[in-house]
Write a structure and sequence with these properties.
The complex is a heterotrimer of chains A (about 290), B (about 450) and C (about 325). Helices cover about 35% and strands about 15% of the residues of chain A. With about 290 residues, chain A is an alpha+beta fold. Chain A has 2 domains: about 35-90, 3-methyladenine DNA Glycosylase II, Chain A, domain 3; about 100-285, Alpha-Beta Plaits (2-Layer Sandwich). Chain A has a two-stranded antiparallel ribbon. In chain A, α2 (about 35-45) packs across α3 (about 55-65) and α2 (about 35-45) packs antiparallel against α4 (about 80-90). Chain A is elongated, with a radius of gyration of 27 Å. With about 450 residues, chain B is an alpha/beta fold. Among the domains of chain B are: about 120-280, Rossmann fold (3-Layer(aba) Sandwich), CATH 3.40.50.11540; about 370-440, no CATH class. Chain B has 14 helices and 17 strands. Chain B has helices spanning about 120-130, 145-150, 170-180, 180-195, 210-220, 240-245, 265-280, 310-315, 355-360, 370-375, 385-390, 395-400, 410-415, 420-440; strands at about 25, 30-35, 45, 50-55, 60, 70, 75-85, 90-100, 160, 200-205, 225-230, 260-265, 285-290, 300-305, 325-330, 335, 350-355. In chain B, α11 (about 385-390) crosses α14 (about 420-440). Helices cover about 60% and strands about 0% of the residues of chain C. Chain C has 14 helices and 3 strands. In chain C, α10 (about 220-240) packs antiparallel against α12. The longest helix of chain C is centred in the N-terminal third of the chain and has 49 residues, at about 20-65. Classes of the chains: A alpha+beta (about 290), B alpha/beta (about 450), C mainly alpha (about 325).
């Protein structure tokens, strides 16, 4: 009985002494922090993905609190909703930004873009890109080794084993931009998500001359300029044998999709066309 | 017997084409001269579509400090200056010449008489070497004239000639030493004059006793040149390793060999210098070893720059059926080619056809921390650590682990029992860290 | 057109593999196994087979069903762990204890950390120390060596030379007196003394050492520094007081020192990677072993010494770097 009493007393005493010491140490080393930083951090998604351009959610929260205006500060993962909460927490006006999403600008699947050699090095796009042009005759397109898949922290991007290309899960993509940074070939772009997620883009980044590009890949942009001519809104520019559709100017009329001879222009999430002549452009090309 | 002190491996030598007399390769029907053939900036073309050129006509001139002139390897007409797939599979600019006859520029002395007397002054020699577009023929293709002018404040004491040829399979330097020994030694005296040193040492590994004996006999007539036999060990042909082996000095990290008073030149370069200075012949052809375990007749060829590799392979008995990988250069540091249509460049020291059985890498397993890569590393760095940091994009850690010291010799991957892609990631890390270091300046 | 394979250099490989190294070590252990079969007979056979089988089975089951990966039991590392584990126990150990030891070695010391290459401690030693602490009686009663005995559990038990020494010194016997009770030097060389399965025969272990060096599986650094440190340390102690401390010969040839120095301390995964690091690691193992043997409670300390230094390996790897090219100047 005595032993137990002594033990309890000793431990209790030790605990009390430690608590007192801790209290004073904590007082001494106290750092003042704007309580709003914690508030802002609270509403952030806590993904620490770095999509905002800061080292993590905490750093972003600090930046928000310090900044005079929220212009230029945007959490792509949380979107406008979270930014509105952030703005409320620090008593500033929210700056509404267009929601974005990652798009893969390469359609060079194993079928469309035949292999001309076999890569046998480390399974990393960065290593392969530093070594050579890639397994196909197109030295611009997807290398298919999945650096973007590894970079994605939201499980929103997966390599399709059949096509050998990455596919983006629209539900999960937060447009943090990690895949864009990871891709050594710069084929992934963050584009305006568009109304009802509808968007049109050129799914090719090949800058070779038309004939060379076409030989390397069935669905390459050959820089023919048909889309540029048909576009009524001046949204399409052709540079270095490659068309680019400006997402801001594009009005989603889909005319360019119809005229593209190689089917390099993709439309997403549109309802099926009603008229007969506008079947999928790839089939059109084959029928001719 | 001398050798370098840190690390090193002994890959099987497989010198299949040893002692095969140098044969002259047939002229191509069309020569494709890549504009970027040396380390540094690609040359700027001075001819245009339709220009008639002779062998040795200037095609493109040096476009910066680190860059070299380029001369026509064949006579004929320039048909186009266009993009062409090079060894890396990327498209690069090239001058394409349709071959007509074999007319040489008049200034080139085509006789085989040996000219020992050096009339040119130091400055004239360096100018001639620069004009002739000579680059390091060991494979790094660094413009030679820059190497001959040490940065201000540094003086060279000794010229080291690299006759090591430590890469397995390759025999072009060996054969050149056997056949053109006299010319090489004259080339060395020219280089000595250009650098202003009175001592030169030729380093040759003792797996080439005939070359050691042959050159010893020749250098006996010259003062200040000696032959140094070296114990066989890879990567002895690395500049830093060779300096360590021969004069027992180590080049401090991040500096040039001249820091320890040495200038290193390759055997092939010495020969090219002889031809440029004494015979006015620009660099438009070189010796290349065509080899491989299934190649019918492995051989050493004197071939013109711009000849497609497919023609050279055909000359040596055609592409073996079981070829699964073609390497430009030796098996340790050479570059795998995407196609046989790639043309020869100044840096092409060999062409190796690897049969299917040896072409594939084995399954990658866990690192078992055996430390074999550390023991093999000739720079005394830690490949396993560099790979781990590069793989995880920890560039600061990679830099402080001295990733930039790596000479990419491949010894670490050669010995790794788990078949880990060490060098793949180290190379990636070097590129990233190099860019970070440059951006700081 | 045929498709060529493209990969970064180098394009040739030495043909080294994990498998080759592991089987090489197993071959090097065969002489010692043969000696233990001679002196411990049936018991040695049963224990060795049990250990190897249970290690391989545990590894297979864990890799396949727990980690849901591709089993790599053919790389030989589990077989080697089993063999080394068996070498570290008395030949009359009950089978179930052996199985528990194997479960700890593979399941806890190896696979929880991610399998081969990631374990901080030598699995066989971790298993052995677990058994030593859990079953102290069984783990410290060794059968007397006979020629090809067919008895197993009920073998006549005796003490190891180290045990005799510890007990004798504790009783206050003089060293000269104790030395008469321990086996002769030739017996120690051949292995005719009490002890764990694989540690008894110095000659057999040294043959294995030569084989490992010849096959370039290990370098001399760790074994030589362990044995060297033991020799120097005990020589100093012996010189200071010949009546209280045994000399280097006794310490080197008894107990698990040779087995530990040659086969356990040199385990790739848990030993340092640079040569200097290996020398420091080896020397420390030697010193700690003698500290435990001479001043500690246990008669034998090799296992503990190696495990302690295993813990220091990451630290050694971090601070002891190989000699870098160009470092000497400036």
């Amino acid at each position: 009985m005595n032993v137990i009493l002594i033990t309890v007393l000793m431990l209790g005493l030790l605990g009390a002494v430690a608590a007192v010491i801790l209290y004073f140490v904590a007082q001494k080393f106290k750092v003042f922090e704007d309580p709003r930083i914690d508030e802002v951090q609270e509403v952030l998604p806590a993904a620490n993905c770095g999509g905002c351009g800061f080292a993590g959610c905490r750093a972003f929260a600090e930046a928000c609190v310090k900044a005079d205006t929220l212009d230029g500060l945007f959490c792509p993962v949380g979107g406008n909703e979270v930014m509105a909460q952030v703005a409320a927490a620090i008593g500033q006006e929210a700056v509404v930004a267009d929601p974005k999403i990652a798009v893969v600008r390469c359609n060079g699947s194993c079928e469309n873009r035949p292999h001309t050699n076999m890569y046998n090095g480390a399974s990393s796009c960065a290593v392969a890109a530093a070594l050579y042009g890639g397994e196909t005759a197109c030295s611009y397109g997807c290398l298919g080794l999945g650096d973007c898949e590894v970079a994605c922290e939201f499980d929103a991007l997966h390599m399709n084993p059949i096509t050998g290309l990455p596919e983006i899960d629209e539900e999960k993509c937060t447009s943090c931009g990690a895949c864009v940074k990871a891709c050594p070939k710069l084929i992934i772009e963050l584009r305006k998500k568009g109304p009802k997620s509808r968007r049109i883009f050129v799914s090719c980044v090949n800058k070779d001359k038309g004939a060379v590009a076409k030989k390397a890949c069935d669905v390459a942009c050959i820089g023919c300029g048909k889309c540029e001519k048909v576009c009524e809104f001046n949204a399409i520019t052709i540079e270095n044998n490659l068309a680019y559709i400006d997402p801001v100017k594009c009005r989603l009329c889909r005319k360019c999709v119809e005229v593209c001879p190689t089917g390099a222009i993709h439309e997403l999430n549109f309802p099926p066309r009603k008229e007969k002549e506008t079947i999928a452009p790839v089939n059109q090309e084959k029928a001719e | 017997m001398k050798t370098f002190k840190i690390g090193g491996i002994h890959p099987p030598e497989n010198k299949l084409s040893a002692n095969k007399t140098i044969q002259v390769a047939p002229l191509p029907t069309q020569a494709i001269v890549m504009l970027g053939q040396c380390l540094g900036a690609p040359s700027t073309p001075v001819v245009e579509k339709g220009s008639e050129v002779k062998v040795g006509t200037l095609l493109a001139k040096s476009s910066g400090f680190v860059s070299a002139n380029l001369h026509a390897p064949v006579s004929g007409k320039v048909v186009k200056i266009d993009e062409f797939i090079d060894a890396s599979g990327y498209k690069k600019s090239a001058v394409v010449i349709d071959v007509e006859g074999d007319v040489w520029e008049d200034a080139i002395d085509r006789s085989t008489t040996l000219i020992k007397e050096i009339k040119a002054s130091k400055e004239e020699i360096i100018k001639k070497i620069a004009d002739a577009g000579i680059v390091g023929l060991g494979g790094a293709t660094f413009p030679t004239h820059i190497k001959l002018t040490p940065p201000p404040g540094k003086t060279a004491e000794v010229l080291i000639i690299n006759g090591v040829e430590c890469e397995p399979y390759l025999t072009s330097d060996h054969q050149l030493m056997m056949e053109k020994g006299e010319e090489i030694v004259v080339g060395i005296t020219i280089l000595m004059k250009a650098i202003g040193v009175n001592r030169a040492i030729i380093g040759i590994e003792n797996n080439k006793p005939d070359a050691i004996a042959h050159l010893r006999k020749i250098v006996a007539q010259y003062s200040g040149i000696e032959v140094c036999p070296l114990k066989v060990q890879y990567p002895q042909g690395g500049e830093k390793q060779l300096i360590d082996a021969i004069i027992n000095r180590q080049v401090p990290s991040g500096t040039l060999p001249v820091e320890v008073g040495a200038v290193v030149q390759n055997i092939g370069t010495a020969f090219a210098v002889y031809e440029a200075v004494q015979k006015n012949k620009p660099l438009f052809e070189r010796i290349i070893t065509i080899t491989g375990k299934s190649v019918k007749t492995p051989c050493n060829l004197l071939a013109r720059i711009g000849t497609p590799f497919s023609q050279l392979i055909d000359f040596c008995g055609g592409l073996p059926n079981d070829t699964a990988k073609i390497v430009g250069g030796g098996p340790m540091m050479g570059k795998a080619l995407v196609s046989v249509d790639v043309p020869m460049t100044k840096g092409s020291s060999g062409l190796l056809m690897i049969p299917e059985a040896e072409a594939q890498r084995q399954t990658i397993r866990n690192c078992i921390r055996c430390g074999k890569c550390v023991s093999a590393c000739a720079m005394g760095i830690e490949p396993f650590l560099l790979m781990a940091t590069s793989e995880r994009a920890m560039w600061e850690e990679a830099e402080s682990a001295h990733i930039m010291d790596c000479i990419e010799c491949g010894s670490c991957m050669f010995v790794c029992p788990s078949n880990r892609p060490l060098l793949d990631y180290i190379r990636l890390g070097k590129a990233k860290v190099g860019a970070i270091i440059r951006s700081r300046k | 057109m045929s498709k060529f394979i493209v990969s970064p250099s180098p394009h040739i490989h030495s043909g080294n593999s994990v498998q080759k190294s592991m089987y090489g070590v197993i071959v090097a252990l065969l002489p010692a196994l043969a000696v233990s079969l001679v002196f411990f007979g049936l018991g040695a056979l049963i224990i060795t087979l049990t250990a190897i089988l249970s290690c391989v089975i545990f590894e297979y089951v864990i890799q396949k069903y727990l980690l849901k990966g591709e089993p790599t039991i053919l790389d030989g590392s589990a077989i080697l762990t089993g063999l080394l584990l068996a070498f570290n126990v008395p030949s009359n150990l009950p089978i179930w204890m052996m199985v528990v030891g194997a479960a700890v070695a593979i399941g806890i010391a190896k696979m929880t950390f991610g399998g081969l290459g990631n374990n901080p401690f030598n699995p066989a030693l971790a298993g052995r120390v677990f058994m030593l602490i859990s079953f102290p009686v069984h783990m410290t009663s060794w059968p007397k060596p006979e020629i090809l005995p067919l008895t197993y559990i009920d073998a006549v038990t005796g003490a190891t030379p180290l045990g005799i020494m510890k007990e004798g010194l504790a009783k206050g016997d003089s060293l000269t007196n104790i030395m008469t009770q321990i086996p002769s030097f030739t017996d120690m060389l051949i292995g005719k003394m009490g002890g764990s399965l694989g540690e008894i025969s110095a000659i057999a272990l040294l043959i294995g050492f030569v084989y490992l060096l010849w096959k370039k599986i290990i370098t001399w650094h760790i074994p030589v520094s362990v044995i060297g440190a033991v020799a120097i340390f005990t020589a100093i102690l012996h010189g200071a007081n010949p009546q209280a401390y045994a000399g280097p010969v006794f310490h080197i040839f008894t107990g698990g020192l040779l087995l530990g120095a040659i086969f356990m301390a040199t385990d790739y995964v848990t030993s340092p990677m640079s040569k200097t690091g290996m020398l420091i690691y080896g020397t420390m193992i030697g010193v700690i072993t003698i500290l435990i043997r001479v001043f500690g409670a246990y008669p034998e300390g090799v296992s503990f010494a190696i495990l302690i230094m295993n813990a220091f390996t990451p630290l050694i790897n971090k601070y002891i770097k190989p000699k870098r090219y160009g470092e000497i100047l400036k």
